[in-house]
Amino acid sequence: DNVGKFSIINKYINGTFSENLLNYTYGLYFENKNLIINDYEISLQLSYIPDIGDILVNYENEIDVKNKRQIFNFLENVKIFILAFDVHQPDFEFIEKILRVLDKYYSDSQYILVGTKDDFQTFKSCEEIKRLESNYSKLRGFLSTSSKTNNNIENLFERVSDIILENYLTE
What we know:
Layout: H1 5-14, E1 29-37, E2 40-48, H2 52-57, H3 65-75, E3 80-86, H4 92-105, E4 110-116, H5 127-135, E5 139-144, H6 153-167
Parallel strand pairs: 3-4, 4-5
Antiparallel strand pairs: 1-2
């Protein structure tokens, strides 16, 4: 689904936005950004995997054992999942299915819920988001973003940095 996942990464890493990125978002996509957080040098790897939500939701039904193992091996090292949805077409039932799978298989990870395409900053947290936040302790908040207007893109990755600092960097 075209919810703007690649656009978030592209805006953060390269500072650019294009309405026509669909052609570039097939297959796996990785970008790295080096950060310094409280004197720690961190290499942040941002990955975009098309249809990852569908893959996770259907994970237990996956027949291809090799494919299942490859997905699990890749995702077991993910520390923070950014769950993006289009604010104009939110599917909270699907998001909750993803959260249940993440809780079951990736218990060491944290999650951030991100509304995308909020160009006019009109989407606010709603009862569904509050319910998800109260039911999933590893869901570390919600941000409404726009890659087009650069709304909350930096804030999103500042939050990712804060989560890394709080949970994964030890002295």
